[in-house]
Write a structure and sequence with these properties.
- The chain has 440 residues and is an all-beta fold.
- The chain folds into two domains: 189 residues, Jelly Rolls (Sandwich); 207 residues, Jelly Rolls.
- 0% of the residues lie in helices and 51% in strands.
- The protein contains no helices and 33 strands.
- Strands 18, 19, 24, 25, 26, 28, 29, 31 and 32 form a nine-stranded antiparallel sheet that branches.
- A hairpin with a 3-residue loop joins strand 10 and strand 11.
- The radius of gyration is 23 Å and the shape is elongated.
- 50% of the residues are buried.
């Protein structure tokens, strides 16, 4: 998975993924938020890849001694299929003094729960509790397999830090959890042929605080119901359409169209092949990449091809929603905030030294702005000379200065430091043009 970097017309902003750089999987699914306590809350992004569960508990009675009235979160709106993989980042986001935690008080926890039926369920997460981890957090697995308890609690302070990557793999007959791409717990023999999946935070007693954010929530292809793509009403602020061909050799290559601002926000859509991706397995795959306030996320969507494919990116400013189209069919809606003036890229990439890219871009068509003529249309001409890295080069092949321009991105990667890939460096050939902005 290559990283996005954001450009202004003059300056290059280097944007790196923070917290984790791991492969995501291919799908998101609709979520439904809920709370069982009036002081606990839950929200989620419209793209269903982020859940925030937090608050101060108001009900009485320690957890485990009565009803489940101590948690909030979001549950997938449709039950999952009988096998799959889930990846997400779990962050402690209670940060009153700049020192973040998963909460405060006598007890709190952040967890993901798979509920199949009353006798087959399991939750994995981090917990602070007077009995099992009185002075910090530790790992917890709580559940039952055909009514028999499974799991347990690791020694106090068995894990530290407030940012962790979690992978869950389930089948009809069992489930396992991998923490930070390092340690796997399970397989636990819990039936998971039709699980309900929830992202939750919990507070132990009255006045306790819990605060967990789940980011980059991604499911493997076919494991969940994706629901339908939502297209906003009204006219988009911009549309960017092109027919692209993604081709290359080696371990990875890609072709994208991109829109970004000068405030560390960007959205790209295109086709990528990455042999190191457990989701795509090196096959061409439709993908979007997003940077929001400098934080990177991405989503594999569905299989693509090496043949010419017409893609379109549209963005609505009134609700900060982008839609990715393939052959005029919407395949993904993406929540992203952009601040015009905007900039537009065509981009090709290759993954590491020795890999090659050979992308083509047919005549581009960009419509931008809703305050014409002051902030409407394009400015100047495509810049294909300033943003070429490690042997890759963008070329305007027909010389058209704005709409109607055609491009290639070609080359073989060389000069990366040992171990360097598109995860650690901008390995790209890029053509860029700016939105017309009050005479500039």
């Amino acid at each position: 998975m290559k990283i996005i970097k954001i450009f202004t017309f003059i300056f290059l902003f280097f944007i790196y993924l923070i917290v984790f750089r791991t492969e995501s999987f291919a799908m998101v699914t609709p979520l439904t938020p809920y709370s069982w306590d009036p002081g606990l809350y839950a929200t989620y992004t419209s793209s269903y890849d982020n859940v925030h569960a937090w608050g101060m508990r108001k009900t009485a009675g320690a957890w485990g001694t009565g009803p489940v009235n101590y948690q909030s979160g979001a549950t997938i709106s449709y039950r999952a299929n009988s096998s799959g993989t889930l990846n997400f980042d779990m962050l402690g986001t209670y940060c009153p003094n700049g020192q973040c935690a998963y909460g405060a008080g006598t007890g709190y926890k952040g967890l993901v729960q798979f509920w199949n039926n009353p006798t087959n369920y399991i939750a994995f997460g981090l917990i602070h509790d007077p009995g099992v981890s009185p002075v910090g957090t530790t790992i917890m697995v709580e559940g039952a397999a055909n009514g028999v308890p499974v799991g347990g609690y690791w020694p106090t302070n068995a894990i530290t830090g407030t940012a962790h990557h979690i992978t869950v793999t389930w089948t009809a007959n069992g489930i396992s959890f991998t923490l930070d791409n390092n340690v796997t717990l399970g397989v636990y023999p819990v039936t998971e042929n039709n699980p309900s999946i929830s992202f939750l935070a919990a507070a132990r007693e009255t006045g306790d605080i819990c605060d967990t954010t789940f980011q980059n929530i991604n499911f493997s292809p076919g494991s969940v119901n994706t629901g339908s793509v939502s297209v906003p009403t009204g006219s988009p602020y911009f549309t960017f359409q092109d027919t692209i061909t993604a081709n290359g050799s080696g371990s990875g290559y890609s072709a994208y169209i991109n829109a970004h601002d000068a405030n560390n926000n960007a959205i790209s859509v295109g086709i990528q092949s990455d042999s190191t991706s457990p989701s795509s397995g090196g096959k061409p795959t439709f993908i979007y990449e997003r940077v929001q306030n400098g934080v990177f996320s991405h989503q594999y969507i569905s299989p693509a091809s090496n043949s010419p494919t017409t893609i379109k990116l549209a963005w609505w400013s009134n609700n900060n929603m982008a839609v990715f189209y393939v052959n005029n069919t919407p395949i993904a809606d993406i929540s992203v905030i952009l601040y015009p003036r905007l900039f537009f890229n065509i981009e090709g990439n290759a993954r590491q030294n020795g890999d090659s890219v050979n992308d083509t871009f047919s005549p581009v068509s960009i419509s931008v702005g809703n305050n014409c003529p002051t902030y409407c249309g394009l400015n100047g001409s495509w810049n294909t000379s300033s943003f070429n890295y490690f042997g890759l080069r963008a070329t305007n092949t027909n010389g058209e200065p704005q709409n109607g321009a055609t491009f290639t991105v070609t080359g073989t990667v060389s000069g990366l430091p040992s171990g360097g890939t598109w995860n650690t460096n901008e390995v790209a050939g890029i053509g860029m043009i700016a939105q017309y902005w009050n005479g500039q």
